[in-house]
Amino acid sequence: MASALVENHFRSNKLPHIWCPGCGHGIIMRSIVEAIDELGYNKDDVCVVSGIGCSSRAPGYMDYNTLHTLHGRALAYATGVKMANPKLKVIVITGDGDCAAIGGNHLIHAARRNIDITTVVFNNNIYGMTGGQYSPTTPTGEKGTTAPFGNIDKNFDLCNLAKAAGATYVARATAYHANMITKLVKAGMENKGFSFVEAVSVCPTYYGRKNKKGDAVQMMRYLKDSSVNVKAAKKLPKEKLEGKFFIGEFHKVEEPEYTEQYQKIIDSFQKER
Amino acid sequence: MTTTNQKGLIINKNWCKGCGICVEFCPTNVLEMKDGKANIKDIDSCIMCKQCELRCPDYAIYLGGKKDGK
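ok -> structure tokens follow
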């Protein structure tokens, strides 16, 4: 028994999902599904691809064409799917470890090619599934099971990384801002090119407990209180932005899309025949 | 076990994992935690804003009990 949205777009016999109580991933997954619902896409035209990790469990619950692939390789598989059938609306669901560590190269090259894939990163700042090891987005000084005295690495800003690599749409929202995720994913899917949406999630079980961030409610409250929309940030004085992070649309440009460029080459040779 | 009411607010207690997010972010204080699960405390205050449905990570609470409700 569930809402119409859940009944229509999820494999509801697979629910409830395996994520921990208070995990932000469920909220983000629902927001993505809402975006697909609002865009009115045929379910058979949507393909969701994921790698490995907590986040990558999502396609198992979503009632579209779905692929659960190798660790970090979701974008490589998605590139193949999109090249083979450019009509498909391809969404990649990946985690911070999956996307920025083992899959870091796939991310920058998919962004560089500007292939029409919408990537949603469920960023919970930790490797949740394997027991709380620190990831490339664990903030400096924060703890993980493999950094019991604090992480000395500098963390990635995934949005800046994607933008620098050539993504044509870059945005960030949080699990608290569920409606915003829907809005950004919609805009990302409508963008003809590589769209990157970072969805900041919460992991109360590992990241929260290791770093004494409190329970799921407190972590969600933190997302609400510490995020500033990038549009509003321009008008705010510097001291009000201390310790805050930005959400909203960061980057949007139009550039040639990869599968279209590829088709042009095919067409040019077929003309000569 | 589910509960229905005139506002159409439904809690699927089998799916609820008791994280408390819906209770915290309900603007009119309709919900409470009872026996480790979300529970409707004061349905008359419900303004049907869907903030609980939007943020329930487990899709256990939603508006939809009424025929005209989406």
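Chain A has a mean pLDDT of 94.
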